[in-house]
């Protein structure tokens, strides 16, 4: 960061730190105690799709790694494309296997990063729900190295902002929470959250 950046108030973005994903299981304990939300066992990694043999090879390697795990609930992993053209690699585990789900998310991110596709990574999420049917995702923003909660009201494309702020306050000792609320993007019908 140069002198001009300092004078103009520009800051250098935080570097991605994939190891922050490993804080999700402890944050889940805090989250359940504070709000009643429990893991669904669903999670996903979102990335911009790239054409080419190198990207396809990386994708095959990631799927082979995930498919090799025999303790997975349901189909091994699933690749989906959303309405905006982004790809989502979805992992399913039983709700009590959040650490294994986090390992899946980390493996996908790390494989893409190692193979030079870090710039295509957008976010990762782990899904939660409560007895009232509300859905929540703790979303990791790859390029910011921070998390934010996304709470979706049942049956609607509306967020519960008050609950999001409550969740952020509850987990801020466990996870680096994104301070810029304009970066708390509404990932409507995100695979891994809606499943």
Give me the secondary-structure topology.
Elements: H1 3-7, H2 24-35, E1 38-48, H3 53-67, E2 77-81, E3 86-92, H4 98-114, E4 121-129, E5 135-141, E6 146-152, H5 161-171
Antiparallel strand pairs: 1-3, 1-4, 2-3, 4-5, 5-6
Helix pairs in contact: 2-5, 3-4
Description of the molecule:
The chain has 195 residues and is an alpha+beta fold. It has one domain. The protein has five helices and six strands; from the N terminus they run H-H-E-H-E-E-H-E-E-E-H. It has helices at residues 3-7, 24-35, 53-67, 98-114, 161-171, and strands spanning 38-48, 77-81, 86-92, 121-129, 135-141, 146-152. The chain has a six-stranded antiparallel β-sheet with strand order 2-3-1-4-5-6. Helix 2 packs across helix 5 and helix 3 packs antiparallel against helix 4. The mean pLDDT is 85.
As for the number of domains, it is: 1
Strand order in the sheet with the most strands = 2-3-1-4-5-6
Largest sheet: 6 strands, antiparallel
Helix content: 25-40%
Category by helix and strand content: alpha+beta
- Total helical segments: 5
Strand elements, count: 6
Gross morphology is: globular
Strand content: 15-25%
InterPro entries: PspAB-like
Pfam family, one: PspAB
Keywords:
six-stranded antiparallel beta sheet, 195 residues, 5 helices, alpha+beta
Give me a quick take on this structure.
The protein has 195 residues and is α+β, with helices and mostly antiparallel strands. The protein has helices at 3-7, 24-35, 53-67, 98-114, 161-171; strands at 38-48, 77-81, 86-92, 121-129, 135-141, 146-152.
